[in-house]
Amino acid sequence: MESPATCPAAKAGDFKSDVKPVWCPGCGDYHVLLSLTKALAALGLRPEQVVVVSGIGCSSRIPAYTNCYGFHGIHGRALPLATGVKVARPELTVICAGGDGDGFSIGGNHFLHACRRNVDLTYIVMDNEVYGMTKGQPSPTTDPCWDSALSPGGTGMSPFHPLVIALASGANFIARAFAGDPNVTAKMIADAITHPGFSFVQILSPCVTFRPDQKGWKDRVRQAPVSETDDPGRAARRLMTDDGFVCGVLYRGHREPYRHMVQTGARGPATDLVETGFRVGS
Amino acid sequence: MESPATCPAAKAGDFKSDVKPVWCPGCGDYHVLLSLTKALAALGLRPEQVVVVSGIGCSSRIPAYTNCYGFHGIHGRALPLATGVKVARPELTVICAGGDGDGFSIGGNHFLHACRRNVDLTYIVMDNEVYGMTKGQPSPTTDPCWDSALSPGGTGMSPFHPLVIALASGANFIARAFAGDPNVTAKMIADAITHPGFSFVQILSPCVTFRPDQKGWKDRVRQAPVSETDDPGRAARRLMTDDGFVCGVLYRGHREPYRHMVQTGARGPATDLVETGFRVGS
Amino acid sequence: MTSETDRHTSVSVALVGSGGAGVLTAGQLLLQAAARVGLFGLLTRCVGPQIRGGESAALLRLAGAPVHCMGDSFDAVLALDWNNAERFASEIPLRSDSVVISDAGNGKIPDAMLAAHPVMVELPIAATAAAADGGRGNMVALGILSAMLELPAATVQAVIATALADKGAAAVSAGVASVELGRGLADQAGLRLPVHRDVETNPLRWLLTGNEAAGLGALRGGVRFVAAYPITPATEILEWLAPNLQKIGATLVQAEDELASINMCIGASYAGVPALTATSGPGFSLMLEGLGLAVAAEVPLVVIDVMRGGPSTGIPTKSEQTDLNAAVYGMHGEAPHLVLAPTSIADALFTTQWAVHLAESMQTPAIVLSDQAIGQTTAIINPPANVKFFAERAVMRLPQTDYTRYAITADGVSPVTLPGTPGGQYTADGLEHSPRGTPSSRGEDHALQLDKRLRKIASFNYGVHWADVEGDGAMAVITWGSTTGAVREAVRRLRATGRSVRLIALRLLYPAQPRQMAAALSGVTCAVIVEQSHSGQFHRYLRAHYDLPPEVRLIARPGPLVLRPGELAQRIGNRSQ
Amino acid sequence: MTSETDRHTSVSVALVGSGGAGVLTAGQLLLQAAARVGLFGLLTRCVGPQIRGGESAALLRLAGAPVHCMGDSFDAVLALDWNNAERFASEIPLRSDSVVISDAGNGKIPDAMLAAHPVMVELPIAATAAAADGGRGNMVALGILSAMLELPAATVQAVIATALADKGAAAVSAGVASVELGRGLADQAGLRLPVHRDVETNPLRWLLTGNEAAGLGALRGGVRFVAAYPITPATEILEWLAPNLQKIGATLVQAEDELASINMCIGASYAGVPALTATSGPGFSLMLEGLGLAVAAEVPLVVIDVMRGGPSTGIPTKSEQTDLNAAVYGMHGEAPHLVLAPTSIADALFTTQWAVHLAESMQTPAIVLSDQAIGQTTAIINPPANVKFFAERAVMRLPQTDYTRYAITADGVSPVTLPGTPGGQYTADGLEHSPRGTPSSRGEDHALQLDKRLRKIASFNYGVHWADVEGDGAMAVITWGSTTGAVREAVRRLRATGRSVRLIALRLLYPAQPRQMAAALSGVTCAVIVEQSHSGQFHRYLRAHYDLPPEVRLIARPGPLVLRPGELAQRIGNRSQ
Ligand SMILES: Cc1ncc(C[n+]2csc(CCOP(=O)(O)OP(=O)(O)O)c2C)c(N)n1
Ligand SMILES: Cc1ncc(C[n+]2csc(CCOP(=O)(O)OP(=O)(O)O)c2C)c(N)n1
Ligand code: SF4
Ligand code: SF4
Ligand SMILES: [Mg+2]
Ligand SMILES: [Mg+2]
To answer: What is the CATH number of the domain that holds D278?
Structure first.
């Protein structure tokens, strides 16, 4: 896997593919794509060193719109896929991306355990508080009163707190961003990639088609008024009580990343070592 | 479903079946069974009004050892099963019970969503920080240094915090108990059953066979030094930083329980109402 | 020959345009107008992967008698624009006498269409719409087509008035005005495409999709609990059920995933409330472990799998009959259960209702294999009969002492107690168990329960519903599911030319019914098996479970291209000469 | 007749006692001693649901030549106590000349055993153990049996010394003393049960379980990444692999569930590292959606399913061959892939290694169907040959511009780039796609990719390994998996009586190999199909995919009761006369 050290630095545009997104005009995900490519360029990475992994949903279409290696997996299983890639090939930069349904509903268990396992990868959730791809059903982050065909009159269930869950499960870096601020978001993604262990970035990314009300988000988001913390207790309390629109790096931990990675030297046929146990009397 | 109102009150023993547990002598789960039957008797319930639902594991064997209605389901899916029972028949008392592997590893997603859905049922996890039934592998609550065949030298991953996760996901009642104190535990289970919405009780229940070190738990557990709270922020901070041995009711919330229950009157054939939409021109 | 027959009894038209253009709405209104005048018909929607925008088409077939499949080719295509239309041009076959109507300069006509050398007509649709106040191209198109089809202006107006009612009077009159202008364009150009009617029938009609029909079948069958997770193309079943369950005091729970939805259904059904979930291939795969539990613990429930292109995420918006293997064989261990499939849109109602009845009667899960072509096609049908199948479980209300949940009975069905019944307590279990329900690893107990679970479904009397069997002769066409529509029409056309061909369309796919099949096949020397698959799953299934005639031929094609009646008549007919 | 043959070439003994009594340890030591003197043999463990305590038994068969199944009946049973032994008495068939050794008053001998009227011997085992310093009943039992079997005292002592080394010298000498006392009891009672040896062979032996053999096969095949979730009876594969992968710089990830483990394997394999997971029925069901993704995205990997009693949680500790349907047909959509099964414990090594090679060669998932009888039985075998199958994927190292991931090739295999390779970037996808990998719902793209994915496995040259084919004659016995052992012995016995019977034991279950099967069956008029199932899954599978001889008979029995060679010889022989 020779990496051409002499290549000129890649620019944000070099991380974009020529595949036309299926996204609706105005969808927040366009901005996330832009932010991601900017972040990768800012870090001086090359497209072939990066793997973008996703599940299923509008947002999960993102891998093919980058010029990186990509894997558009199945609904809810992006994190295990990404974990496999990173553990097998620790030298690669692995980005996992998807929606709130993919990550917090069907994929909720992997989210818990990816945080805990703390493999050095970055997880971006484009949260639009709805299932876009299946045309507008409530997700775990949806407001309890939001009326829809599947939940007439609203779900009546209060949305849960992905950031607190990430913290309680052991994520090492927790941030919230708004798709409408691509430069700030790019910076946050770059920060997340650089931080060791599992980094989680929730990006508020409006669904203009099924949640036109989200166009109002731009007026509600604001940068965190207090400084970053590495104290889980303080972070828990702060995240538990915020209104969901405070942006910034909200927790930065020091846990040791997952350590059982495949060594590059493990490849060749080398099993003699392990067979002796079966030989009788020897 | 006639309930004989004239029956004498059931005693703890009336909630026990004649099936002999497969549990090892000394297993903490015997005490949990005792506590549960005491709690049900204390509440003046009758065995046929109670449904005990579980997944797979040593602890998950518990339904058949009670004289209630029971469902020993599949690994990790106890909570959806229990949810189905309660939503379909809200007049029943539903207890869901199982192990840390069943509830926090394979069943982690249902745990998140059961907390959030806040259906009025009680979830008891017999936490022994190990997979007992499959003979000793680490679970999500296992110490990172615990050596085992599957994780030689330990997992290196810090255990996660089921109580904080319950809180962040919306559980309405959160408590921790120690199997070795059956009277206190019975009281706590009764409390959990009485409290509306989703109640979560973590019971530290030693596995004497694969975690003989847990015999030392009795010296570490203690009742919570401060009083109960209904403030999620305060509870989050407290739970996030405790050492896992503080027992008591640690959070008691006021969220409205899940409301979309099946009405008793919904049974008969009554569909005329809904067919008119298909008639052309009418 | 075949397309001639076709042309005289039905008319097929396609409305094409990019996502925002509103062709699907126009198609829907056209269908409604046709229904109001007592015609029959079908409308399928052809959409791309985009959520909004992107290519789309409304494909209609209208007829004087019930129709069950799309025609061989289209008599007319009207395009508001041709953006990306080449992506589905192969789904709109034309003839040299087909009429292609479009605006000048609204994009490139797909080569596949031009290859047929159709009659090209240019009409100023956009200009006409622009000239009207609040005018819209799709309404102009509706006018053109409704005039061609000779649907009365008043009927179209009434349909618009109903459809746009909540948008206000201005919207309605703008719509009506556009339609009138469109009708004028058609009249001027002398475009006519009337639908021939054989007989006048009572014009009472129902208009619904297969997904809605399945939802209604569930309610009629007694389903009062639904837990599900959205997935294309099954979501409309759920979105129809959610408000309608609410109306009758029942409920739909949106689960966190399909593992949860199937297990919630098991819980509800164990508690005594008939339960159902609906999904498609990927979700169905996730339900297999739960389905095995339902088999072992003997808990009835119904799963509707609205099949789409596979494998994996596959082609979510297109139809295919390739979950048959997974439905029949997908569970680990020996897990006898029921698999059914509707043979038409209307039959989605009957089959789902019957499935609820069967599942409850035998205390076992039933899988209903619908597909996208049935589920997402809107049909005009005769009002469906009110059949009596309802959930009736063998419930023991006053259990004896020592209640034996899994008692060995002659018919394999063991009466069950419901929670709340004193003295009836037992623990349901997915572990193998003794008749009392206590876990057991003894060979004797295993054999008894395996026998019992197989016996209850193998010895049940399914009556005549196991298949639609029609006709006689030495050749039989065997098929299932949505493919039945085209096969039925092909067989009808062959009969019209004097050939005798039998049709066997299976409604009960599992357990196999060898005696009934033997009777249905008696005297048959050649069987033609028709299915929408790549590997011939249905064919292999039949080989495994039935004795087939000496000669067997397979007509199989994977989705999304449908098998058309003319093509089938030709391929089957060639063989039967 | 058959059990005669059996008796002369092998000896079967059972050691019975409740969980804490240590009979499994004693059985293991007995097997080790036998291995050291160059005997062959098998040891299966029979345990109840209890984690500790509860009934248990060690079932051994020792022989002078390789054995592949348990015998027809037991020559001797030694019980330390009879607690709950009736639960598995039917798994220990006796004859009237079998010897039953037990202590007076140590419980009730199961009726099923007494029914055979065996020779009853009472020995003071407990008292003897109690008399010795640190003496234990299981070690006394080891002494009795080792003396009966004429295993040299020095060998048994050496085995004990190794096994108890880390418990210290006192434990070793207590063990040795108990054994000596036990040998004395056997000598006094004149109990003798020597193992007959046909020929002296090179006494180098391996001792391992099928689960360990599979683990080694994975390593030899090149697997360097494992993700899995524990489940009986597959866990030992993982527990063997975990430390051994660590040793060579590779890794095992304990996943949160099976959905995660299969997807982690897909990720690792996509990244270029050969990957494997192991599970049993319930976990396998959860992997089906992921397996479909691997098929569609063309990512190689191996899943070992160590089958146990089903359906659902079923009977976790007992063997059955009933995940065949799920393995072959369980994925939704058209998902061609590989299914293999080892035909013996030793073959678990070869088959797993071959599976890795095949999966990597064809970029598709391979399922290895092992079972509890193979996985958890310990065998003494000849050192396995070092075969060369290794993971060799068609990797494109210097991609051209416009790299086409899913290029249509003659053999269906498209060279793949690995992440890190400049210019080779592509997005793997479970959506149907164009050759470039871009999502497509076009019928043409779907057909091309379906054809390609089928072609690559259908046109591959699998060589002679698709099945073990032996013998000739007009009758063929067709079988697979762990059942092969008993069938092989039955066929050998029939041949010894002059009858010619063919054996066809399939190693490659999917895709079917009709040409090879036709050759193997040429001249055969009757096929007997043998499997451990209730519904005859293998039989139905063969019917669906192969042309079978005019006469077909089925011998099927579900677990946990094994098919024994004598019974099989008789049932097959009856037919072949
Ligand atoms: C197993 C399975 N279940 C359901 C689906 C259907 N499905 C596709 S995307 C989606 C939800 C997407 O929501 P989200 O992740 O929030 O993404 P968005 O479209 O909002 O970006 C669902 C339910 C599926 N593909 N697979
Ligand atoms: C789908 C599935 N995967 C794996 C298993 C195997 N299994 C049975 S119990 C268990 C773990 C039990 O651990 P826990 O829930 O902590 O219960 P304990 O035995 O410790 O009480 C596992 C992995 C299974 N039965 N089903
Ligand atoms: S439906 Fe919503 S999330 Fe999906 S592409 Fe459109 S705007 Fe974006
Ligand atoms: S193995 Fe552990 S958890 Fe299981 S029964 Fe024994 S002591 Fe209890
Ligand atoms: Mg979303
Ligand atoms: Mg545990």
So the answer is: 3.40.50.970
